[in-house]
């Protein structure tokens, strides 16, 4: 091209007249090269390179396509090379193994200098070639398109980041809700409770799975009818429950206890707690709430009531026993004190004193027995009464008890001992003291009762 032409890159060839020598391989390579850039030129075909140079000097052409300038000989002063090489070639050197080592090093050294020296023709050609490629891509897209792409990429990045954050928040919130639902079901399971819902229009009742589980009722449908619920209510509670449900839509809050009988004939105590749900016209449409199994609580309450009744009964028996013991204690004490005073006085004959002393000894034994009974009652109440078992002969035991009561038995009572067992048949393993005490109490009570009957 002419020297005064300010040629910067290949895009300047658009719609320019370019001289192409017929049958020149360089012309074919040039057309293939600019086709990749989608550049349109006005091709002017010329017979020879010399004619092409002449027409270029006459400014009939913008540029001509040819081989390297050194192959054309000396160029006219007004014609210069564009520096655009569209068919770069590789130059390779080969050497025999182990030979021309110095020459190879010299070539490598020279090439490294060319590559690193900005003033070298090699460096300039490589730089211009790369620059042409870069500027071609730089100028293909308009500025507004570039800004649009940048804006789209930015918007897409922000939207992607927002969506990712939103998904993470939704995932976290979903996991939290799932955990809360799991904890709620666990808490309801531990608390033996579940949810219920009943439509006031058709009286269909819906139970959660927990209610079916702790009541033992089979889940045959998604809902329970009023007739089915009546069939599982305890007969003693049915009338009260039916009356309650007929009037419960008149209350804002619901609370009722009743008994349910499942197919295993088990009685389940339940407590219903809930509230009414009204529509926009303030008309009740349904009720919702929880059902809690209170069987253990009710059984515990019944046990407490029985324990209270037993304690009250025992307290009455204890009071009666202490009142009776009070009378029993005063009787021997009065005898002991009275006869002791008589013996101490000089008004009683000597032979009578011995009788009084025997009476005092007998009353002492009676008083000691009463005191031992009181102590045993206290031990029984504190669960500290000890039973010591050992081999006990029944015959001597019964004989001793008979001898103790024979003298006190009135003549009107037929009191005798009749043992028809051999010695070896009358040995048992028991607490001899407690057994003797029990038999003595039985006989004493029997004699007292019989004596009272005879007196009346």
Summarize it.
With 456 residues, this protein is α+β, with helices and mostly antiparallel strands.
What report would you give on this structure?
With 456 residues, the protein is an alpha+beta fold. It has helices at residues 25-35, 49-57, 69-72, 101-116, 121-140, 143-190, 209-215, 226-232, 235-247, 295-344, 350-381, 394-406, 432-455, and strands spanning 17-21, 42-46, 63-65, 193-199, 205-207, 253-261, 267-278, 284-293, 390-393, 427-430. Helix 10 (295-344) runs antiparallel to helix 11 (350-381) and helix 12 (394-406) runs parallel beside helix 13. The model is unreliable at 131-139 (pLDDT under 50).
- Indicate the proportion of strand residues: 5-15%
Number of helices: 13
Number of strands: 10
Q: What is the mean predicted local confidence, pLDDT?
A: 81
Structural class given helices, strands, pairing?
alpha+beta
Strand arrangement within the widest β-sheet reads 5-4-8-7-6
Order of helices and strands: EHEHEHHHHEEHHHEEEHHEHEH
Question: Which stretches are low in confidence, meaning pLDDT under 50 for 5 or more residues running?
Answer: 131-139
Distance between the termini: 162 Å
Question: Over all CA atoms, what is the radius of gyration?
Answer: 63 Å
The outline comes out as: elongated
Largest sheet: 5 strands, antiparallel
Helix content: 55-70%
Oligomer: single chain
List keywords for this structure.
3-stranded parallel β-sheet; single chain; 5-stranded antiparallel β-sheet; 456 residues; 10 strands; alpha+beta
Layout of strands and helices, then pairs:
Blueprint: E1 17-21, H1 25-35, E2 42-46, H2 49-57, E3 63-65, H3 69-72, H4 101-116, H5 121-140, H6 143-190, E4 193-199, E5 205-207, H7 209-215, H8 226-232, H9 235-247, E6 253-261, E7 267-278, E8 284-293, H10 295-344, H11 350-381, E9 390-393, H12 394-406, E10 427-430, H13 432-455
Parallel strand pairs: 1-2, 1-3
Antiparallel strand pairs: 4-5, 4-8, 6-7, 7-8, 9-10
Helix pairs in contact: 10-11, 12-13
